[in-house]
Design goal:
Length: about 675
C-alpha cells in the first residue's frame, strides 16, 4: 500500500488587521441597532395601526381603496417610520462613535416611552400629562437598562421579526384580508315566489339615527321639525318597535341584508356574506346600489360606484390621524367610522340632479351643492324601467361628523371637541339634531322624486337606519356601555315600509328586529330566498317573545326587553335665545376662532360660521353662561365648561341660518350674570 503523501507545513497565521476588525464590529453593531429600531417601531407604530385597520375593513371600503392601494399603505406603515428612525441614527455616526451610541440610546428611550403611553392607556387610569411623565420615566429606565445590560438588546433583536408577523396577520388573517384578496363572487340567486309581480324596490338606509330623536313629547314624529319623516309615516307602515342588532355598521348592515344575526367578526364584503339581498335579487332584478362602508354587492351584480375614488393620499392622511389617536396620551375611542364624511356633490364634481327646493328657509343659492354625492346619484336613478329594479342607498346621515344645519348649509368644527362631559353632551345632541333636520330634507327630496317620476305608487319603499346613538352622560356612543345605560337611544331606529299602492299610514308595534328586513322585503317582492334566515317576515305572525337581541360582538348576543321607548324630555330653551341685544362697552375678554369668517360672508359658498368656539380667561368661573349673538340677536346660550386638554373652552351652535346675511356679520359674546345682566366680552 502506498504511503500517504506527507502533509505540507502549516500555513502561517494571518497577521491581525485592526482596521478590518473595527469595521466588522461596526457593521455588526449597525445591524444590531437596526434590528432594535425595527422591533421598537414595529411595536409603537406598525402593530397598533395594522391592528386597528385590520379590524376596520370598512375604512378601506368607504375610501374605495383597491388592492394595490392597500398594499402600498401597508408597505408605507411597515417601512417608512422604521427607515426614518434608522436614518436618523445612521447620520449621527458622522459625529463619532460616542454620538452614535448616545443617539441610539436616546431613540430607544423615546420609543419605549411612546410604547409606555400606549400600554398605560390600556392598563392604568392615567391620562394627559401624568401619563406622559410616567411614560417618560419608563422610557428613561428602559434606555438605562438597554445601555447597561445585554439582555434587553437581545430581546429586541429577536422581536425584529414582529413587523413581518404583523403584516402577515393583516393580509392573511384579519377581517380586512377579505377586502385585499376576495375569495368568492357571491351566492345563489333567489327565485320567483308564486305568480305575483316584482315591484320596484327603493331602500334608503340611514345611519346613526335613534328613533327617539324624531319623536315629540306625544310619542309621534315631530312634524314641525321633521315634516318629511311625518309625511313618510302618513303613507307607510311604521314599525315603532324596530331595533337594530348591532351598534357597529359592519355588523348591523349585513344582518339587515342577509336576515342573519352577526356570527363572526368578518369584513362587510360579498366574499364573507355571499348570501345577501343583492345576490338573491340579482337574478330577477337590476341592481343599482350605492353602498358606503360595505361592499356586499358583488361585481357580477353591481357596477362600480360612479363617484371618484379618493386615492392613496387620503388613506395616508387618515392613517396619520389614526396614529395620533393611538399614540396620544389622552383618552380617545379609536373608531375610524367616526371620521367618515360623505362627499358633497360639488366635491365629487357631479352635475345638478335636482333643483333647489322652493322653501323660504333654503336661503343660499349653492346649498344644493352640499347634497351628498351618493344621494345625488341615487336620486338620478329613481326612474321607471322595463325590468324590476332594486334601488339601494346606504347614506351616512345623520351620522357624525356633524357638519350640516337643517337648511343644508355646512359649517366647520375642530376635530377635538369632546362629545361627553358637562356642556359637551348638549352640544353634541344639538349638532346631531341639526344634521337630522337636513336628513329630513333629503327624505323629502326622495319622496318628491319618486312622485315626480311615477315610481312612488308602484314601488316598495323602505326607509330605516342601521342603529342609533346614545347621548347619555358617561355612556356616549353605540357600544355596550351605551346599551346598558340608554338602549332606547342605541337600538331603536325608525323603520318605515310603504307597500306598493299603499295610501294610508298605519302603526305596527310588533317585535321587529332588523334581521326581519330582508325576509319582509323578499316577501313583498315575491322572491323566495335560497337560504335560511333568522328573521321573520312582516307577512308572518308577530313574535310572541318581546326579547331584543343586540350584538356588541358577533356571536355574543346581549338580550333586553322590548317595547317602544319613551322620548327624553326636550331641553328648555334659554329665555334669552331669540332676543335682540345692544352691544355696550366691553367688560372682559374671550378668544374666538375664525373671526375673519364674519367679515366677508359669501352665500355662494354654502358654508356658514355657525359653530362658535373659543376660550375664556381663568377669572370667568366654570359654569358661567355665555350668550352668543350675531347681528344683534342672541342665537345660543352655553356654559363655560371645566378645562380639558384644549383649554377652558366654550362652543355654541347657531342652527338658525336666518341669523346671518351676506357680507359683514357682527359676532358678540356676552357673560350672563346671575341676575340676567349681560357684559360684553372683547373678542380676539
Amino acid at each position: 500500500m502506498a504511503e500517504p503523501a506527507a502533509a505540507g507545513p502549516p500555513a502561517p497565521d494571518e497577521p491581525p488587521n485592526p482596521a478590518r476588525e473595527r469595521w466588522d464590529r461596526g457593521w455588526r453593531g449597525e445591524v444590531a441597532r437596526l434590528l432594535e429600531m425595527v422591533a421598537l417601531v414595529g411595536l409603537v407604530v406598525t402593530q397598533p395601526l395594522l391592528d386597528v385597520l385590520g379590524r376596520s375593513p370598512d375604512f378601506f371600503l368607504f375610501h374605495r381603496a383597491d388592492t394595490a392601494q392597500i398594499l402600498l399603505l401597508v408597505a408605507l406603515v411597515a417601512v417608512v417610520p422604521t427607515t426614518g428612525v434608522a436614518l436618523l441614527g445612521a447620520l449621527s455616526r458622522l459625529a463619532g462613535r460616542t454620538a452614535r451610541a448616545l443617539t441610539h440610546t436616546g431613540l430607544v428611550g423615546l420609543l419605549l416611552a411612546a410604547l409606555a403611553v400606549q400600554v398605560g392607556r390600556h392598563v392604568t387610569p392615567l391620562r394627559g400629562v401624568p401619563l406622559l411623565c410616567v411614560a417618560g420615566l419608563a422610557g428613561a429606565a428602559g434606555a438605562a437598562a438597554h445601555r447597561r445590560w445585554r439582555a434587553p438588546s437581545r430581546v429586541l433583536r429577536l422581536a425584529a421579526a414582529g413587523p413581518v408577523a404583523f403584516v402577515a396577520l393583516f393580509l392573511l388573517a384579519s377581517p380586512t384580508s377579505a377586502v385585499v384578496l376576495p375569495r368568492t363572487d357571491g351566492g345563489a340567486a333567489g327565485t320567483a315566489q308564486g305568480t305575483g309581480v316584482h315591484p320596484p324596490v327603493v331602500m334608503l338606509i340611514l345611519d346613526e339615527l335613534p328613533l327617539v330623536s324624531l319623536l315629540g313629547t306625544d310619542g309621534r314624529i315631530d312634524a314641525a321639525k321633521y315634516p318629511h319623516f311625518a309625511e313618510l309615516a302618513g303613507g307607510s307602515t311604521w314599525y315603532r318597535n324596530a331595533t337594530g342588532v348591532s351598534g357597529w355598521t359592519p355588523n348591523a348592515l349585513p344582518a339587515m341584508l342577509t336576515g342573519r344575526y352577526p356570527a363572526r367578526p368578518v369584513a362587510p364584503h360579498y366574499s364573507q356574506y355571499p348570501d345577501n339581498i343583492f345576490t338573491a335579487f340579482g337574478g330577477l332584478y337590476d341592481i343599482r346600489a350605492e353602498e358606503s362602508i360595505t361592499r356586499l354587492c358583488p361585481p357580477s351584480r353591481c357596477e362600480q360606484p360612479v363617484t371618484p375614488e379618493q386615492g392613496l393620499d387620503v388613506l395616508v392622511r387618515k392613517t396619520g390621524t389614526l396614529l395620533r389617536q393611538i399614540t396620544g396620551p389622552t383618552a380617545t375611542q379609536v373608531d375610524p367610522e367616526d371620521s367618515y364624511r360623505e362627499q358633497t356633490r360639488a366635491e365629487a364634481g357631479l352635475d345638478a340632479a335636482e333643483p333647489v327646493p322652493a322653501d323660504p328657509t333654503f336661503r343660499w343659492d349653492s346649498l344644493d351643492d352640499n347634497q351628498p354625492a351618493r344621494f345625488t346619484t341615487f336620486l338620478a336613478g329613481l326612474k321607471p324601467t322595463t325590468r324590476p329594479t332594486l334601488h339601494f342607498l346606504h347614506l351616512l346621515m345623520p351620522h357624525s361628523p356633524w357638519a350640516y344645519l337643517p337648511s343644508g348649509a355646512r359649517y366647520d368644527a375642530p376635530e377635538d371637541l369632546p362629545n361627553d362631559g358637562a356642556g359637551w353632551i348638549d352640544l353634541a345632541r344639538q349638532r346631531h339634531l341639526a344634521q337630522l333636520g337636513y336628513t329630513d330634507r333629503l327624505v323629502g327630496e326622495t319622496l318628491r322624486t319618486l312622485r315626480a317620476s311615477g315610481l312612488y305608487d308602484q314601488a316598495l319603499v323602505v326607509v330605516t337606519a342601521d342603529h342609533g346613538v346614545s347621548f347619555h352622560p358617561g355612556a356616549q356612543g353605540r357600544g355596550m356601555d351605551a346599551i346598558k345605560a340608554a338602549a332606547g337611544e342605541v337600538a331603536w331606529v325608525p323603520t318605515f315600509v310603504k307597500e306598493p299602492r299603499q295610501q294610508t299610514g298605519r302603526v305596527d308595534d310588533r317585535n321587529w328586529e332588523h334581521v326581519d328586513l330582508l325576509p319582509t322585503v323578499a316577501d313583498e317582492a315575491n322572491i323566495r330566498l335560497p337560504w335560511q334566515v333568522d328573521g321573520r317576515s312582516a307577512r308572518q305572525a308577530p313574535r310572541t317573545d318581546a326579547t331584543k337581541h343586540f350584538y356588541d360582538r358577533p356571536g355574543e348576543p346581549v338580550t333586553f326587553p322590548g317595547g317602544v321607548p319613551t322620548p327624553p324630555p326636550p331641553p328648555t330653551p334659554h329665555p334669552l335665545i331669540g332676543t335682540e341685544v345692544r352691544a355696550g362697552p366691553a367688560d372682559g375678554s374671550a378668544r374666538v376662532a375664525d373671526l375673519a369668517a364674519f367679515k366677508a360672508m359669501d352665500p355662494d359658498t354654502g358654508t356658514l360660521p355657525a359653530l362658535i368656539w373659543g376660550d375664556v380667561p381663568d377669572r370667568i368661573p366654570d359654569g358661567t353662561l355665555l350668550a352668543v349673538a350675531v347681528n344683534g340677536r342672541i342665537g345660543a346660550v352655553v356654559p363655560v365648561v371645566p378645562a380639558d386638554p384644549g383649554g377652558r373652552r366654550f362652543a355654541a351652535l347657531l342652527a338658525d341660518d336666518k341669523l346671518f346675511h351676506a357680507g359683514t356679520n357682527k359676532l358678540d359674546v356676552f357673560q350672563v350674570g346671575t341676575d340676567g345682566t349681560l357684559r360684553r366680552l372683547a373678542l380676539s
